[in-house]
Amino acid sequence: MALACPLIALAVGSVATAPVAWGHDVLISTSPADGQRVGAAPSLVTLTFSAPVLQIGTAVAVTGPGGDATQGPPAVLADTVNQPLRGALPPGGYRVQWRVTSRDGHPVSGEFGFAVGGAAPAGPAASPTTGSSPLHWPPWVWIASATVVVAGVLAAALPSSRRRRAAAGAARSSGRSRSRSSA
C-alpha cells in the first residue's frame, strides 16, 4: 500500500499538468508583423510557429481594399507557413486570418493586421485560439493516463497478494509439521 500512494499521486499529477506539458503549437512571429506599416507591398505573408505544423487544414486569408489579396495556396515548411500575395497590392489596411493544424491534431487559429503605405492596419492584434479542453485531448493522452493508473493499482495489489500467498504457505507448512510431530 505504501507504493500505491506515490503511484496514484504520479497519475493524478500527470493528468493535472497535461494541458501545460502537451500544449498546442503557438504563433511566434509574422512577417509583416502585426500592426506594421510597410512602404511597399510584400510578396508573401509568413507565419512562424513554435513547432512544425501539419499541412492538413492550413488556410490563410489576406483581405484588403481590393478584396482577396492571396495568390494560390499556402505552403507549409516545418514550423513556417508562407502565403503568396498578388503583385501590386493597393495601399491600405490588410487583415490576415489564419488556421493551422497543430502537431497534436487540434486546430489553432488567429488573425492580425498590417498596412501598405500610410494607411492604418486592418484587423485586431494577433489572437490565436484553439479548440482545447481536457475533453478534447488526443487519444494517446487518455491511454497513457489510464496505463499509469492501472499500473499503480496493479503495483498496489501485487504486494498484498504475495503476502497472502506467503501466509497461506506458512500455514500449510506449520500444519504439516504438526501432523509429523503427532505421529
Can you walk through the features of this model?
With 183 residues, the chain is of the alpha+beta class. It has 2 domains: 4-14 and 137-182, no CATH class; 25-132, Immunoglobulin-like (Sandwich), CATH 2.60.40. Helices cover 33% and strands 31% of the residues. The protein is built from 3 helices and 10 strands; from the N terminus they run H-H-E-E-E-E-E-E-E-E-E-E-H. The strands form 2 sheets. Strands 2, 4, 5, 8, 9 and 10 form a 6-stranded mixed beta sheet that branches. Strands 1-3-7-6 form a 4-stranded antiparallel beta sheet, with no helix packed on it. Strand 4 and strand 5 (67-68) form a beta hairpin. It is rod-shaped. The two termini are 42 Å apart.
Entry keywords:
alpha+beta, Immunoglobulin-like, 6-stranded mixed sheet
Instruction: Look at the helices and sheets and give the structural class.
Output: alpha+beta
Number of domains: 2
Strand runs, count:
10
Architecture (CATH level 2) name of the largest domain: Sandwich
Order of helices and strands: HHEEEEEEEEEEH
**Highest-level CATH class of the largest domain:** Mainly Beta
Q: Describe the biggest sheet?
A: 6 strands, mixed
Alpha-carbon Rg, integer: 30 Å
Intertermini distance? 42 Å
Shape: rod-shaped
Count of individual helical segments = 3
CATH fold annotation of the largest domain? Immunoglobulin-like
* Beta-strand proportion: 25-35%
Helix content: 25-40%
For the residues shown, what is the average pLDDT? 77
Uncertain runs: 17-21, 125-138
